[in-house]
Structures are given as structure tokens and as C-alpha cells.
Known about the structure:
Blueprint: E1 5-8, E2 14-17, E3 24-25, E4 29-30, E5 37-39, E6 45-56, E7 59-70, E8 75-77, E9 80-81, E10 83-85, E11 97-98, E12 100-103, E13 106-113, H1 129-140, H2 145-156, H3 160-167, E14 171-174, H4 210-223, E15 228-231, H5 243-256, E16 261-266, H6 271-280, E17 284-289, H7 294-301, H8 308-320, E18 324-331, H9 339-351, E19 356-361, H10 366-373, H11 382-391, E20 395-397
Parallel strand pairs: 14-15, 15-16, 16-17, 17-18, 18-19, 19-20
Antiparallel strand pairs: 1-2, 1-7, 3-4, 3-9, 5-13, 6-7, 6-10, 7-11, 8-13, 12-13
The structure holds iron/sulfur cluster (SF4).
Residues 180, 182-184, 187, 189-190, 237-238, 267 line the site of iron/sulfur cluster (SF4).
Amino acid sequence: MSAGLVYCDRDGRIYYDDRYEPLADGGVVREVEADELIPAPPGTLEMILPGRRARTTRGSLRGKYAFAAILPAGYTRLLVPAYESEGDAPALPLFGYTFACAIDDELYVAAMKTDESEDWQPRYFAEGELETLLDRRIAADPANRVLAQVALCSREYGCFTAQNVFLERGEAALPVSPKCNARCVGCISEQEPESGLESPQARIAFETSVDELARIAIHHLERVEEGIVSFGQGCEGEPLLRSITIAKAIERIRASRTNGTINLNTNGSVTGGLERCIDAGLQAVRVSLNSFRPHAYAAYYRPIGYDLDDVLASIRLAVQRGLRVSLNLLTHPGVTDDAQEIDAMTAFLREVPVAMIQTRTLNIDPAWYFDAVGRPREPLGMRRAVAAIRDARVAVGNFTHTH
Ligand code: SF4
């Protein structure tokens, strides 16, 4: 089974050419191993990398531009495409570029399946169905600005947790904070002008109120017995900067409903704020990080007034207080599987047994990321990184599960 090249012409048309063997990038540019490949799963998207020549075992090819696959939810990427940028190559938008090749005229990707959840399968609305749900709900609570925000996110960004507010199912979004105390290189809600990129989503522009948040959460838990309501969404900054509001909202929710799960998605930067939310009744938390090594964390998050130690302290606190703790590990081949990274991760997991690590694909231009955090000394392969999590008796997944 030999891997054939998949490439694009300047106009984005896709070609298979098995005269060339493509190279992959796992922090070190190399040939792909057969057991790193699976047939491209349903829902895989195809993408050209403009201004970037495909690299093969016979060199990079003029006029043959690199191809990448974008994996559906539930898969962890093992390798990124290897490419050589031309001088005027434009900035790449924030996607999870994954190595792909052709075998017997079929598209294969370097990935592994790491989760399965009906809740997160793409939804297909009948003509106008979503609009009807949104309009009816907004009409019932016209003054609720948070409802207007999640309506925007449902329509414009196809956000599942926002749509769940209107579908009255699963995990519902409760965005809270317009500000953030980090400046992530790959932030999806706010990009710095010099990045040359537009952020995929517009960040919420106002401070939400206890009343608006509680009204949405109570409505959801009245209709979804095992529902999840989650503070901290892609359309906002850092929710722990508004821990007083979150704590009051939790108290208001719990004064009315005892069912379901109250969750928080956070960068874990403000341990005292997290403690306040836990005292109020928070039950689950998902902390995002790209690395367990201070330099690689700082290079990506560019934190303001906190560091990785604060994040790890928040995780420890949540485990000690008995919350359901997941880590949202922003994975990238060549960084997540660096030998030193795996050592740092397993040492922490042995001390602090979280329930799950979600091995999410970091959406960023690989060259940009390697420039920011550095290439590895010794990449061991993403499958080794995933195996190390399991060896530490921590579940691997991609979605928030309540149990
Ligand atoms: S922590 Fe979240 S909101 Fe803040 S900069 Fe990073 S990605 Fe953006």
C-alpha cells in the first residue's frame, strides 16, 4: 500500500498522482506510515493551501499546491501536510489542516477515531426550521441579549451548543465575557490586526447579566432532564473574568432547578474565580491548554497576568473539589507528541487524575504554530501521545460527556 500524492492546481482543482509519494510533517518532515492512515471519514472537507507547494520524496513541485483534509468531529489528527511556501503565500485561515494521500484512487487521511457522539453529528434543518425556532424563542424573550447572541451564533457560525438552546436538547451555550486575559495566536473570536487574518467569529460585545443567563439556563433544564448548560463559548473571551456573575447565575439556576449539569469551559487562569463558581454549585469544568510545558504554553496563549502554573492549580482545585474535570487539549503533531511534552503531561496526569482529555485539533497554519512554539527535538507520534493518556488511566475523547 503506497501513498500517492493529492495536490491542487492554482484554481483549487484536485488531482491524484501516484507517481509521487507525498511527505508529511509531524514536527519532522517524513514519509507517512501505513498504519497512520484511515480512509477519509464521511464529513471530511477538502482544502487547498494556496501559495504552498506540495513536498514529495522527489522534492517540492512547481504548480502543484499542497492539499489538506479537514476532519469531522470525533477524530484526532496524526500528521499535517508538508509544504514549501512561495514568497507571496497568503495567511492561512484557522483550520485543522490534516495530511492526506491517495491509495487505489481513494482518499486517506492521517487520523484516528477518538470519540463518537450522536449529539455532535451535523444537523440538517428543513427549509426555515431553524429560523422558526429562533423567531419563536426570541419573541418569547425579546429583551434577552444573550438569546440574540446565540441566535447569531446558530445562524452565522452553525454553533451546535448555540443551536441546542433553540432545539432544547443536549448542551446549551451561555456566553458571558467580552474580555480575555490571553492573546492566543489562533484565537477564533479575536485576531490581532497584524495577523493578517480575520477571526472566524465576532466576539460578544457586552457583559451579560445574571438574569439573562439564568433565564436561558432554567428554560433549558425545565425541558432537558439531563441537559448541560455551559458558560464559556467560542464567541467570547475568558468567562472566569466574570466569575461573580457566573456564581450568582448558578445560584439563581439552582434555586429553581436541581437537574442537569452546570459546566464551565475556561482557560483556567483565575483559580480564585473558579473557586467562587464551585462554591456556588458548579459541577463540571473543561480547561483548555495546548501544552503542559511553560514555554510552549506561553508562546501560544500569550497570557496577561497569569501563567501555566495558575492553569494547573485550577485543574488541581477542580479535581480536589470533586468536579467532573475534562481538559480541552489543543493538539498539534510535532508539539503534543514531543517526548518532553508527553513526559510533562503524564507526570501531571499521574498527580491529578482528570476524567477525560479531549484531543481536539488545533486550528492554525502549521508553519505559524511551529514558528511560535518551536519544532520538536524528538516527536514520538500522536498515537504515542494518545496512548500515554490512556496509560495514565484517563479517558480520551473529543466531546463533553456528562457521564
Ligand atoms: S483564551 Fe479563548 S478567547 Fe482568550 S484569546 Fe485564547 S482562544 Fe481567544
